[in-house]
Amino acid sequence: SKTLGGEFMLKQIYVKDFILLDEVQLDFSEHMSAFTGETGAGKSLLMDAIGVLKGDRVSAGMVKEGKKKAIIEGVFEIPCNHEASRILEEGGFELEDQLVIVTREISADGKSNVRINHRLSTVSFLKQVFSSLIDIHSQHDTQYLLHSKYHLSLLDKFGVDKTLLERCKNAYQNYKSIVDYMEEMLREDYNEDDLEFLTYQLNEIEDANCKENELEELELQQKKLQSYEKICSTVQNCVELLEADEGISNQLYEVSRQIGTLNEDSFFEEIQNEVTDVYYRLDDIRDRLKNYVDSMEYDEENFAMMQDRIYQLHKLYRKYGGSYDALMRKKEELQSHIDSILHRQEFLEREEKKKAKAWNEYKSIADEVHKQRICVSKKLEESILAQLHDLQLPNAQFKVSIEETQGNAAGYDKVEFLISMNRGERLKSLSMTASGGELSRFMLGLKCVFTRLQGIETIIFDEIDTGVSGSVAFSIGKKMQELSKQVQVFCVTHLAAVAACAHQHYIVEKYQDDASTTTSIHELEEKERIEHLAWISSNSSSASALEAARELLEKAQIES
Question: How crowded is residue 59: how many other Cβ atoms within 10 Å of its Cβ?
Answer without folding.
Answer: 9
